[in-house]
Structures are given as structure tokens and as C-alpha cells.
Amino acid sequence: MKRATPVLLAILLGALASGIGVGIFLKFANDDRNRLASELEAARKTAEAAEADKEKLAREANEKVEEANAEVLHAQDVLNSLKEEQEQIVLAKTLRKPATYEIRGWKSVLSFHQEVGLFLPGSTEVEMDSGEALLAVKQSAKEGPTQDTRWLSVTPYAPSAEAELTGSFTTSTSLSYLIDGRLVTGRKGAVRDTGEQMLVLRVRKDGESTHLIWIKDPGTLGSGNGFERLLSTFEFNS
């Protein structure tokens, strides 16, 4: 028994040492596994961030290309419009400032919002002057409470508004004027249902459409072509 004791001790010590060694190995292995997992996760996040950056750069590049294409198309439209404008200016009727006696009793109006100046005939007044519109109405006491007294509007140009207004004509004829150095084109026609004569005009400058004007006869524009007399008082400051 005494002889077996050292052997058993040796076996026990060996087992203990072996267990300790395995434990240390397992700890190192576990640490390596955790480290590799962390490195793998960090690499995955880096790859995702790089992919997101790549997608962002591609998206920004596409947006810039689209913006550049839009600018090129706009420039082409402006050039085409400018060419058309120059051709029409040659054919347009020039309206010169009226003589003082022709607009006696008319009042001067200056719209800072619409950047226009003009004269309004008697019995009319400005109802609104804002960034949306310069609007003039008739003052006649005979008009009923539901009667539309609006007869003149100047707004920033909008194709949809122009189409809506010209769409109300039963018949119409084209107009082309040169007023204060601006080409003013549009149509004159009879309004559906009421039969009133109305002008719908677009003001142009350097290939761009700047204003939309519609006019009905308020009954105080004077003899002759009252529409042209009124239009000849316009000045454009923009």
C-alpha cells in the first residue's frame, strides 16, 4: 500500500495538472473565439458602413446627374423660347405710352409684389396686391352682392392658370404686343356663358415667362381700343 501511494499521488497530480492545462487551454480558446467573433462583427459593421457610403455616393452622383440633365433641358427650353421670342418681337405690335389726355382721370398704380406699374381707369380700384396677385375691381354701385366685379389680374406666370383661362373661350384670336420692351402674347376671346370679351396674356423676358395677365372691359377704358390703351400704360420693373 505504501508503494502504491506514490503512484496514486503521481496519477492524481498528473490528472490535476492535465485538468489545469485543459482549463487554461479552454480559456484561451474561448478568449480567441470571443475575440474572433468581435473582430468578425467589427468587420461586418465596417463592410455595411462601406456599402452604405457607396450607396450614398451613388445616390448623390445620380442626383447630380439628374440635376445637370434638368439644367441642360431648362437651358435648351430657354434658348428655344428666346429664339421664338426674338422672332415674335419683329412681328409684334408696339404699344407706346398714351398721351396724357387719353388717360385723364386714370390713377397710377405701382405693385411692388408683382413688380409692375400701370394706370387704372375711373370707377375701378385695387382690391388686392400681394405676392399672389394684383387684382382690380369695378366700383359700380349697380353690381349685386354676388356679381363678380373683378376685371384685371396680374400674377406670376403659371401654365396651368393660362390653360384654364384660355379654356374658357368659345372663340378667340391671337395677340402679340411689344410693351415697355417686353414681348406680351396671348389671346382675346369671348368667355363661355357670359359672352364677355377677355384678354389672356403672357409676359416674356429673355426667354422666360414672367407674368400672366387677364383683362375684362370694366366699361371705363374709353373709346377706340381700350384694351390697348390700358396695356400701353404698363411698365415692368422685374
Outline the structure in words.
The chain is an alpha+beta fold and 238 residues long. The chain folds into two domains: 1-91; 95-236, Protein Transport Mog1p, Chain A (3-Layer(aba) Sandwich), CATH 3.40.1000. The protein has helices at residues 4-91, 159-166, 226-231, and strands at residues 93-95, 107-111, 116-120, 124-129, 134-138, 150-156, 169-179, 182-191, 197-205, 208-216, 235-236. An eight-stranded mixed β-sheet has the order 1-7-8-9-10-6-5-4. The longest helix is centred in the N-terminal third of the chain and has 88 residues, at 4-91. 18% of the residues are buried.
Keywords:
238 residues, 3 helices, Protein Transport Mog1p, Chain A, 43% helix, 2 domains, alpha+beta, three-stranded antiparallel sheet, rod-shaped
Structural class: alpha+beta
Q: In which range does the helix fraction lie?
A: 40-55%
Q: Number of helix segments?
A: 3
Tally of domains = 2
Strand content: 25-35%
Computed over alpha carbons, the radius of gyration is 41 Å
Q: What composes the largest sheet?
A: 8 strands, mixed
Shape: rod-shaped
**CATH architecture assignment of the largest domain:** 3-Layer(aba) Sandwich
Average the pLDDT over all residues and give the rounded result: 87
Report the CATH C-level class of the largest domain.
Answer: Alpha Beta
Spatial separation of the terminal alpha carbons = 119 Å
Order of SSEs? HEEEEEEHEEEEHE
